[in-house]
Amino acid sequence: MILMAFGNPILDMSITAEDEEVLKSHGLKVNDQLEIPIERLLAVKKDAEQRYAKTVQFNPGGSSLNTCRILRALGEKNVLYCGSIGKDENGEKLLQLIGESGVNCCIQSLEGSSTAVCLCLIRGQNRCLIANIGAAFKIELSWLTEKINPTEMIYIEGYFIPERLSICQWLVEKAGKLAINLSAKYIVRSLWKELRFLLNACDLIFGNASEFSTVVEVSGSNTLDSWVDSLAKDGKKDRIIVITNGGSPVTLMEVIKGVTKRQEIPVARVENVLDTTGAGDAFVAGFLFAFLHSKSSRECVEEGIRIAGETLSQIGCHLPEVKVN
């Protein structure tokens, strides 16, 4: 089975700040998470490089791209990542990094648009994140229909939904199996109409406890169980719902022929945690890797837990040893 993943490809740029002067100079705070104009972002990057005489570290980023990179590092070759970038220097760098990861991609390069970038200014345990999404929102349905035929398994990150409902509708029509990641509480809250359409069509749903709590709230349900029951009532589609909760057990809910089965699967304690960035993306990668190899739902969750745990000992969303076969 081929997995096609859709998301916002981002060039992650990280630099260590020795003091807070670059932040103060540009009106930023140590733990800001902001989207700003590309010109301002590049000015901050240039100032930080000159001020601290350090080179920016580049990594391919974006939720579903992280998942695809981990899948490829695990040896899964039947993965295709789809998104859009600008025809610019940052786009060329991002394509180079994706190629080095071994992930197959179908990426539209758009004239007159800037590649999505995220600059991380690191100061001790603090992270100031400034981003510009740019071209990532602008992938065209007409271009996609000429390039791919998504008839097997589709994975959509929640961040892909804004401004691309027509693409999501096309994917629902075409997909053999459909998986989605809720991605963020604000996605659930601000795009509930679009998300509800996708959730009703999904075979697999991933998210964390706070995101699912928001689903319960905006759907008008009383509890998570009652919301799942509302999905299961027609009995026409079996579903797998996976709810992560940090170091607490993972909740696995399987809807089979209208009947819901619930399990709580413990998470092993991880020593020497260095960075939680992308742990959720790595969990999904481990789950999907096992799923694509016909493992049981519980085995898929256990593999997701194991892979996420391995990335926690790394800086960024990486496995300790990446070997692409």
How would you describe this structure to a colleague?
- The structure is a single chain.
- The chain is α/β, with parallel strands linked by helices.
- The chain is 39% helix and 26% strand.
- It is built from twelve helices and 14 strands.
- Strands 6-5-1-9-10-11-12-13-14 form a nine-stranded mixed sheet, sandwiched between helices.
Structural key phrases:
9-stranded mixed sheet; globular; 14 strands; single chain; 12 helices; alpha/beta; 5-stranded mixed sheet; 325 residues; 39% helix
Shape: globular
Q: Helices and strands, in N-to-C order?
A: EEHEHEHEHEEEHEHEHHEHHEEEHH
Question: What does the main sheet amount to?
Answer: 9 strands, mixed
Number of helices: 12
Which value, in Å, is the CA radius of gyration?
Answer: 20 Å
The total count of strands amounts to 14
Q: What does the secondary structure layout of this molecule look like, with pairings?
A:
Elements: E1 3-6, E2 10-16, H1 21-25, E3 33-35, H2 38-52, E4 57-61, H3 63-73, E5 79-86, H4 89-101, E6 104-110, E7 117-123, E8 126-132, H5 141-147, E9 153-157, H6 165-174, E10 177-181, H7 185-190, H8 192-201, E11 204-208, H9 209-219, H10 224-232, E12 239-245, E13 248-256, E14 259-265, H11 279-292, H12 297-311
Parallel strand pairs: 1-5, 1-9, 2-7, 3-8, 5-6, 9-10, 10-11, 11-12
Antiparallel strand pairs: 2-4, 7-8, 12-13, 13-14
Task: Quickly describe the structure.
With 325 residues, the protein is of the alpha/beta class. The protein has twelve helices and 14 strands. A nine-stranded mixed β-sheet has the order 6-5-1-9-10-11-12-13-14, sandwiched between helices.
